[in-house]
Specification:
CATH topology of the largest domain: Beta Polymerase, domain 2
Number of strands: 7
Shape: globular
CATH class of the largest domain: Alpha Beta
Structural class: alpha+beta
Strand order of the largest sheet: 1-2-5-4-3
Helix content: 40-55%
Largest sheet: 5 strands, mixed
CATH architecture of the largest domain: 2-Layer Sandwich
Strand content: 15-25%
Number of domains: 2
Radius of gyration: 16 Å
Number of helices: 7
Distance between the termini: 42 Å
Amino acid sequence: MKAAQSFLNALRALEELKRLGIIEDYAVAGAMALVFWTEPIPTYDLAVLVFLAEQEAPIVSLGSIYQWAAARGYPVDGEHVIVEGLPVQFLPSHNELADEAIEKAATLDYEGVAVRVARPEYLVALYLEPSARTSKRRERAAALIEAPGTDRSLVQELIHRFRLEPERWGTDLDPLRS
C-alpha cells in the first residue's frame, strides 16, 4: 500500500475511534502534523494526542484502543498500533498544554477526509516542553515559527503561560529570535 493511502486510511481510523466513543477527541501532532503547516519531513510514525473516553481505573489505559485494533486485525508493535501499514502512536493528553492543543486543533481536509491537527503554535509549545526538547524538535519549532500563518504572538503567549521560556532551558538558544 502506498504511504499516502496508508496515511489517509489511518486518518479515517481516527475518525472511527472518535465515532465509536473510544476516544473523545484527538489532534495529529508530531512530525506528520508538519505536513499541514510547513515543509514535510521524513518520519516513522503518526503521533496522535488523544482524549480517551471516561475510564473508571485511576491509571490511564489504552486497552480500548488495543481491543479496537485487535478486532480489526491491526497489529501492535511496541508503542505503536500498525493501522493500514502506518505505525500510529496514541498519546493520552498529559497536561494542560496538550489538552488545549487538542481542544484548539484545526479541522482540516486531507483528500476528502476531515482531520484534526494541532495548530502550529501549539506544536511549537509542545516541542519546547522539557520532556520533548531535543535539537531536532527545536529545529521543527523554528521552522513552524517561520511558516506563513503561524501567530507568533500566540506562540509567545503559550511559551510564557506554560513556562517554556528559553532561560529555563539551560541554554541561550531561542527559537523565537528574529
